[in-house]
Amino acid sequence: MSEVKVSNKLAAAACLSAVSYIAISVHLDGAAHAQSSTLPAVTVEAPTARPAAARPSANRQATRAARRAQPARTNVAAPATPAPTSRVERADGPVDGYIATLSATGSKTSTPLRELPQTVNVITADQIRDQGAQSVSQALRYTSGVLAETYGAASQFDSYTQIRGFTADYFLDGLRLPNGGTTTGWSSAVMEPFALERIEVLKGPASVLYGQAVPGGLINMVSKRPTDTPIGEIQLQTGSFDRKQVGIDIGGPVDKDKQFLYRLVALGREANTQVDFIENNRGYIAPSFTWRPDLGTSLTVLGSYQKEWGGKTGFNYVPTSGTLLPNPNGRIPYSRYLGEPTFDTLDRQQGAIGYLFEHRFNNVFTFKQNLRYFESDADLKALNRVGELQADNRSLNRAAFGIDAGTKAWTLDNNLEARFQTGAFTHTMLFGVDYRDEDSRYNVGRNTAVPPINVFAPVYGIAIPNPGTTNFQLSNAQEQQLGVYLQDQIKVDRWVATIGGRWDNATSTSFTSTALATTNLKQDQDAFTGRVGLNYLFDNGMTPYASYSTSFRPVAGANFAGVAYKPTTGEQVEVGVKYQPVGQNTMITLSLFDITQQNRLVQDPANITSFIQIGEARVRGVEVESRTELTKGLNLIASYSHLNHEVTKSTVPAEIGRKLSQTPNDQAALWTFYDIQGGPLWGMGFGGGFRYVGTTTDLTNARITPSYALFDAAVKFDFGKLISPQFKGAVLSINGFNLFDKYYMTECQLNQGCTLGFGRSVLATMSYRW
């Protein structure tokens, strides 16, 4: 569809939203002044009065200020304990420490985590900082049931992260991010963790609120937003592989009445990686602005632009001989690059602009409208390995690829929230309408006339013909989705019931041309998805729960053979218990689940630029995650997951009973960090972590990737406490990853080779906050 048609559809949707909002506003403003007799059968009451002046970051700044406002140290005695401060947490705002108590991801309303009938794990900005995560994938390393970095250290994409055995969908501020045409991922969004306030993982189907989604779950990232208290941070970073990075984060009120707020997050980086010739250069800027004309209304405009340049990437795979299997010439090192530096390129850029609007009519009704336009482009030239090593155990055949990928997407979500009571029942009801329009391209050229390379003594500088981007596979797809959803969270006594339903209409037009087939497709599908859940809140903080939910995701386009993709559907039954003991900073979640998905997408082993559907898959498992502050300053994260997974139906009988590709049976992680609270080392912090990923298999179950265990460590120096209050705000952090330089593979596929993991690296970050 042309850009004009897209704009027209967006304008129509926006007009519809505006008209709906005006009508609601007129009606509800009038209703706010009407007598209660207008609702004779229902008694409408506000269940709780919302603090009118609560702001996303004011309390966080107050907490920081209280921590820093210590007396000047004249000896080594422990500092005076600051007066306790209350913490007002917002579901879309910052969190002090590692433990969040509220989330909007699981319900699109501000809901305590223990009242949600599904598992939601929250990775806070403080955790990201302490662990030194440099990508969203790295930030997810210690989360139960999540397998990140599936394509190894050479990958420069966040895509393909697994949740409960299924590739996750990504969202930013509650709006879906494009993944480059459903299957390819080359023009998918890549987010900068320095710009995020929190990362939330919703486990299980979420179509009832978000439309297109896989049954394993989704990842929702929350942007840093303007604050009504002045903040500032400058960050300098260096480390392994000649890393040089500078970041800035500033914000606060523009006027004395705090009606206008701003924030600016920016970052610049030049860095190499552990793989020779592959760089990791990035420029990022994200300005935002908030207007609050009154206490019940806010409009936040969010913009971002990111560019990566001068980089190189491959298809990450190296031969199994010399990695998974022995080779008489030795082991292929982490740093080995099998491309051609004078040929390979990766230039990628993305930008977004949108807004978050909220108007609270009264203590009952709140209207929200979120909108974003996102655009990304990726231009790539790279050499890909072909088959395994030749008979000499050294020479590897290669093919040249050129890829031109891009995505443009409009996303709009409107909802009206109502909080009221009917007798003994307290309701939080949500009615919403959302719309998405995504246009993507994925054009590939290939040239097999490329000389082989000696993987143990590579020689570079060979001229490689340009394969272009039009002679191997052409894919263009446009997808539109319109959804209407309704949810009610009902409380009575200690019971919380969550009931929701959604209707979706998804249409797509696509053109796919490969060496085998050319297809023009138009697909139009409707689906109903839902969720029912029940929680019981014990006074001691124990909350058992159970839920049933379904998912629906249309897939535009066709596979390499020209066969149109079918929509994927799924369902999950989950039971568990959440424990948040009264008076303690602890959240423990234990869950058991059973997920079934139809028409599962997997990479085509014969054509790695395409995908196939294998039938039905089933995943049953157990997860446990504990986040707790054991004592003042000592935080602990512990997680474990076990999955029992298999292909249960397929048109190819040999596939039935096979394990799912790249899906470990077991994962475990442990992280702890301690900020010393007094004495001569007050201001110093240290910690470490352990990560274990069990064995995985390829699509055919013929290749087994061994398990691996990795160790990380961190140390922090707060100079304002350790040396003198004159240095308040200056903090040096040092992080070490894979301390013992464990050699491991993240994935091995038959006829494709293996992807190598991350070797040992060190990162030093100097930050100054005010």
UniProtKB/TrEMBL annotation:
Residues in domain TonB-dependent receptor plug? 113-217
Q: Name one Pfam family in it.
A: Plug
Q: SUPFAM superfamilies of this UniProt entry? A: Porins (SSF56935)
Residue span, TonB-dependent receptor-like beta-barrel domain: 308-739
Arranged from A to Z, the UniProt key words for this protein are: Cell outer membrane, Ion transport, Iron, Iron transport, Membrane, Receptor, Signal, TonB box, Transmembrane, Transmembrane beta strand, Transport
**Which portions of the sequence form the region Disordered?**
48-94
Q: Does the keyword Membrane apply?
A: yes
**Cellular localization per UniProt:** Cell outer membrane
How does the record classify its membrane topology?
A: Multi-pass membrane protein
Q: InterPro entries this protein is in?
A: Beta-barrel_TonB, Beta-barrel_TonB_sf, Plug_dom, Plug_dom_sf, TonB-dep_rcpt-like, TonB_sidphr_rcpt
Keyword hit for Signal:
yes
Residue ranges annotated as compositionally biased, kind Low complexity, are 48-85
Give the primary localization class: membrane
Which family does the record assign?
A: Belongs to the TonB-dependent receptor family.
Protein name per the record: TonB-dependent siderophore receptor
Q: What is the lineage of its organism?
A: Bacteria, Pseudomonadati, Pseudomonadota, Alphaproteobacteria, Hyphomicrobiales
